[in-house]
Amino acid sequence: MSAPSKKLGFVEQVILLALMISMVALSIDVMLPALFNISQDLHAENPNDRQYIIAAVFLGLAIGQLFYGPLSDSTGRKPAIYIGFGLFLIGCLLSIFAENFTVMLIGRLLQGLGVASPRIVSLALIRDQYEGREMARFVSLVMTVFILVPVLAPALGQLILIFAEWRMIFVVLFILGLATLIWFSLRQEETLAVEKRARLSIKRIWQAANEVVRTRAAFGFTMVGGFIFSAFLGYLTMSQQIFQDQYGVGEMFAVYFGLLALALGAASFVNARLVMRFGMRKLSYYALVMLTLISVSFMVYTYAWNGHPPLWTLVAFFMVIFFCIGILFGNFNAMAMEPLGHIAGVAAAVIGSITTFVSMGLGTVIAQLYDGTVFPLVSSFAVLGALSLAAMIWTVRTSPNTSGHE
């Protein structure tokens, strides 16, 4: 393909990387309205089995992140992203032509393996160019653009279902993935110079992973991010059942889901404005305190309503909680990566993989506890919020800020 006509500008890069990272969210959220249809057509055995259509993507994401970071440190950022998009497109094709539930899950696993590449390599690409609060600001701006995807994706999926069957959703994913790949290949320059690349070896990967785990700030903030995302993943996985099965909102599901996603986007935008002034740790601490206290209070309230509180109170609770999570997303990634700039690719891989494995494991357990009430989900926000707060306090106390960025 031809070389870019001019250097990629700041705004275009934010939009491009946001779109690439959002392929994960798009692959999940666009088909939430279709989960029941897919599980019925492909003869899933249990009503909760539809959740595995989501979980399979996260499993692929967790596995894939371990490989793309080290690969990008060796070959450069762009080749690693090309490989990932290739796997994603193959996974889309498998899902389009799936005739049973097993083939569908294999296709979803490949999609997860594929989107792991832009998800993790994009963070390394950002780390190549920014650090500290500047990196947190860039990530927050990316998240602000990214949040348009979960706002619009369920509505897109619902719209497709009005005019076509669920397989067309995967056709749309295939087209968007191919278009994004072409845009990236034409416009994004390679950010890792040849002289800075490291030979790909199992020994180097093990040594780098060991450094990530032994660096208390990196490991501590990674675990905090994993705990928080676990509860959020539980929500993602069971949201269709909560809104459509439990509360009977029907096609309004996309509206409720998009409204709640706006809270995440607003928080990311606010964080991008405030992080340069107050620092990542202070903002994250207060957001965690608020999330935990509100979740504990609403857990008691939910128990009083036998797990079925009025819909408007549940939506209000989610909006506040998701605003807090929006503050936390970009900051915890940036704080975990901050001391590891010299091994950015493999560090991003290990951090992302640990976060995803933790959140996928706990989040899947939370979702499988769904019993027709929201009590398991609300309780998970309370318990994991408290655990995250304790882990953050431990991390900060054992990892004094010496960089001047936080």
Automatic annotation (TrEMBL):
<dbReference type="GO" id="GO:0005886">
    <property type="term" value="C:plasma membrane"/>
</dbReference>
<keyword id="KW-0812">Transmembrane</keyword>
<dbReference type="GO" id="GO:1990961">
    <property type="term" value="P:xenobiotic detoxification by transmembrane export across the plasma membrane"/>
</dbReference>
<comment type="similarity">
    <text>Belongs to the major facilitator superfamily. Bcr/CmlA family.</text>
</comment>
<dbReference type="InterPro" id="IPR036259">
    <property type="entry name" value="MFS_trans_sf"/>
</dbReference>
<keyword id="KW-1003">Cell membrane</keyword>
<dbReference type="InterPro" id="IPR011701">
    <property type="entry name" value="MFS"/>
</dbReference>
<feature type="transmembrane region" description="Helical">
    <location>
        <begin position="344"/>
        <end position="367"/>
    </location>
</feature>
<dbReference type="GO" id="GO:0042910">
    <property type="term" value="F:xenobiotic transmembrane transporter activity"/>
</dbReference>
<feature type="domain" description="Major facilitator superfamily (MFS) profile">
    <location>
        <begin position="13"/>
        <end position="403"/>
    </location>
</feature>
<protein>
    <recommendedName>
        <fullName>Bcr/CflA family efflux transporter</fullName>
    </recommendedName>
</protein>
<feature type="transmembrane region" description="Helical">
    <location>
        <begin position="80"/>
        <end position="98"/>
    </location>
</feature>
<dbReference type="InterPro" id="IPR004812">
    <property type="entry name" value="Efflux_drug-R_Bcr/CmlA"/>
</dbReference>
<keyword id="KW-0813">Transport</keyword>
<feature type="transmembrane region" description="Helical">
    <location>
        <begin position="168"/>
        <end position="186"/>
    </location>
</feature>
<feature type="transmembrane region" description="Helical">
    <location>
        <begin position="283"/>
        <end position="305"/>
    </location>
</feature>
<feature type="transmembrane region" description="Helical">
    <location>
        <begin position="253"/>
        <end position="271"/>
    </location>
</feature>
<feature type="transmembrane region" description="Helical">
    <location>
        <begin position="373"/>
        <end position="396"/>
    </location>
</feature>
<keyword id="KW-0472">Membrane</keyword>
<feature type="transmembrane region" description="Helical">
    <location>
        <begin position="311"/>
        <end position="332"/>
    </location>
</feature>
<dbReference type="Pfam" id="PF07690">
    <property type="entry name" value="MFS_1"/>
</dbReference>
<dbReference type="InterPro" id="IPR020846">
    <property type="entry name" value="MFS_dom"/>
</dbReference>
<keyword id="KW-0997">Cell inner membrane</keyword>
<feature type="transmembrane region" description="Helical">
    <location>
        <begin position="217"/>
        <end position="238"/>
    </location>
</feature>
<feature type="transmembrane region" description="Helical">
    <location>
        <begin position="138"/>
        <end position="162"/>
    </location>
</feature>
<feature type="transmembrane region" description="Helical">
    <location>
        <begin position="51"/>
        <end position="68"/>
    </location>
</feature>
<keyword id="KW-1133">Transmembrane helix</keyword>
<feature type="transmembrane region" description="Helical">
    <location>
        <begin position="104"/>
        <end position="126"/>
    </location>
</feature>
